[in-house]
Here is the input.
Amino acid sequence: MDDHTVAGRVLAIIDATAELDGRASLAALTESTGIPKPTVRRVANDLAARGVLQRGPGGYRLGAKLIDLGSTAAVHHGMRDAAMPYLQELFARTGEVIVLALLCGDGLVELERVRGHNRDAMAQRQLVGGPVTGAVSSAMGRCLLAHRPDLADAALHAPIPRLTAYTVTDARRLRDELSSVLDQGFAVEHEQTLLGWCCVAAPILGGNGKVVGGVGIVGRRSARYSPNRLAGAVVSSATGIAADWASHPGRRAGD
Here is the structure.
């Protein structure tokens, strides 16, 4: 969205580049942001010169500068440091892909992913779900939406994309699933975002009781991997992360 400020336009172009996932041509960025094409070209090229974006044959993609900034922000925030022992423990126990996500504004940001070499196929997959209003099909998204009725209402009043043959698109059913997250403390998703893959996730709550993130285990659907059997471990990890983060010097005041 173009708010006509310099900072707003820069952030809009960066956000659109991320959402377009390697398909951020000049035309696509112009259409996505609503910013005039000459302005998009000037800002995007300037960001590319500074390493924030990278320009390639197919258009723009996020640049290495954002990796540095993201790593620094993660250290300042403290969540990653508090979570890593729990993520590593879950990985050692399951051998599956372990994901840590943060709620930033109205969107989900993947902060960390722990995986083995046998999960290289997941390296470039988006596991968190992007904007919260578009994450209602994922276990992580449901954990967060269950604790944010305002965002849940927005998500369930918008068309729900059918990502696979198993994606639930009925708003009434999804409301029931969000209610069960509050009752159980976790969410389970079977092949609703990616065929062959399932996830169990639990919300991480701040000291004020509000959701600040989530932790999940993503694995191939098989007899060996049962999301329901791992729910207790995920909930325990989320609780431990919240407790350790509460005493971390990088924790934001008010969380």
